[in-house]
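quick q for whoever's on today - can somebody do inverse folding on this one?? i tried earlier but teh output was garbage lol. tokens:
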């Protein structure tokens, strides 16, 4: 079966349409260390005319390996601003008086309720914050964060997190983090000192794991050989999940759910979802997919099924000219970390979720 043909048939909206159609607008500021401290900054909420300037700001800020690049403003529109729960009041921009140039922004939002059917506002998330390099050190970031926190508290948040992570990751899926947003990445060195100085503490860490499936050998042992004799890789029909929270975010990306099934018939014993990461092509110069929601049936665990699924999937992806596979795993999930390690994945980054009690 042609995996890419299946992918195209199931996804009427292709994410590669969102890649940059014209050169990224160059920074409008010279590469100096700081602008004058007397520069006047005003703050306002999001406007529909902002996305082109926001894309230029994103690229100027050099957010590190985990931030997509080379995309058009359509990507921000499609993945963030067109969400029905997007609130312009939660997206605050800093503007230089006189020029009306956007020099920074912060984006705050909320996660889902227990059954993933609607938002809950008990916990608020700082999903993104950035300031143009020439305007750092002037208190712009501090003021943006303060205004975002006030927005979250005014809407009922009693706990604040900085760095979106499941399930409190309403925005930037496909744009930041790689496979999925899991906090602010350590490869962006400015995040931790800025947040800890303002009262946030690291609360959870996610390891970013990757496997080069072109230049590494597939793991092989007798246990896997025995499992492969009995099991086969297949593609699930329909969407991987049907709840509103999943559909409104990952439903906008190209996804396929792979299953490990008995050759003799019967229900699958393990599954994982593959996500296209086309918006990272220019940053990583490789054809990459992400893995999320690896699951093994409770009565089928510790039998080598997860490793077999990952190994067979990497073989299939290699045949489809994919070169790199990425997954994120919580530091506390030692069982999953071992499975990915045994499957040839290596840690290349860490995402950190910061927490602060709302005052």
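ok took a stab at it. sequence:
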């Amino acid at each position: 079966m042609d995996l890419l043909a299946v992918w195209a048939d199931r996804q009427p909206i292709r994410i590669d349409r969102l890649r940059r159609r014209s050169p990224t607008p160059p920074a409008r500021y010279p590469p100096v260390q700081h602008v004058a401290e007397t520069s006047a900054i005003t703050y306002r909420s999001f406007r529909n005319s902002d996305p082109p300037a926001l894309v230029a700001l994103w690229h100027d800020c050099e957010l590190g390996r985990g931030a997509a690049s080379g995309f058009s403003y359509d990507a921000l529109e499609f993945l963030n601003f067109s969400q029905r729960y997007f609130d312009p009041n939660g997206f605050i921009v800093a503007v230089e008086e006189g020029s009306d140039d956007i020099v920074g922004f912060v984006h705050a939002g909320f996660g889902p309720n227990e059954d993933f059917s609607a938002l809950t506002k008990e916990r608020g998330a700082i999903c993104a914050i950035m300031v143009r390099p020439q305007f750092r050190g002037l208190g712009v970031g501090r003021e943006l964060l303060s205004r975002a926190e006030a927005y979250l508290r005014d809407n009922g948040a009693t706990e604040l997190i900085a760095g979106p992570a499941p399930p409190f990751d309403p925005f930037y899926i496909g744009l930041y983090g790689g496979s999925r947003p899991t906090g602010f990445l350590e490869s962006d060195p400015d995040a931790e000192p800025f947040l800890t100085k303002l009262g946030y503490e690291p609360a959870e860490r996610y390891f970013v794991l990757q496997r080069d499936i072109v230049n590494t050998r597939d793991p092989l042992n007798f246990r896997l050989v025995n499992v492969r004799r009995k099991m086969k890789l297949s593609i699930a029909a329909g969407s991987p999940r049907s709840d509103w929270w999943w559909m409104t975010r990952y439903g906008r990306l190209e996804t396929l759910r792979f299953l490990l099934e008995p050759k003799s018939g019967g229900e699958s014993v393990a599954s994982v979802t593959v996500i296209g990461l086309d918006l990272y092509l220019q940053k990583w110069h490789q054809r990459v997919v992400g893995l999320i929601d690896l699951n093994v049936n409770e009565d089928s665990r510790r039998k080598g099924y997860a490793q077999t699924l990952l190994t067979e999937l990497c073989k299939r992806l290699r045949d489809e000219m994919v070169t790199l596979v990425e997954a994120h795993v919580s530091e506390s999930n030692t069982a999953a970390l071992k499975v990915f390690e045994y499957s040839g994945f290596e840690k290349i980054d860490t995402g950190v979720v910061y927490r602060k009690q709302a005052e």
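fwiw Residues 159 and 357 are 5 Å apart (CA to CA). also Confidence is low (pLDDT under 50) at residues 6-15, 20-34. so keep that in mind when u check it
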